[in-house]
Amino acid sequence: MRTIKKRQLAKEVQSLAKLMSEELRWELAKELGVDHIVATEGWGGVPSRECGNLVRKAIELAERSLVQR
Known about the structure:
This protein is an all-alpha fold. The protein has one domain. Helix content is 83%, strand content 0%. It has four helices and no strands. Helix 1 runs parallel beside helix 4 and helix 2 (22-32) packs across helix 4. The longest helix has 21 residues, at 48-68. It is globular. 9% of the residues are buried.
């Protein structure tokens, strides 16, 4: 069951990643300190907890962007 949840999470992160620019993804990865993992293993190598943090950060940025408009 854990494997299924991990796969679902990975698919959700990949879907979100498609919406974000490559530059923004790398910026967030650097900010969270997982850019070395992405560079060596790709986005699939990033632990699920860090993916969640990355998504949370992306949502914060999107919300700030909407508030500024």
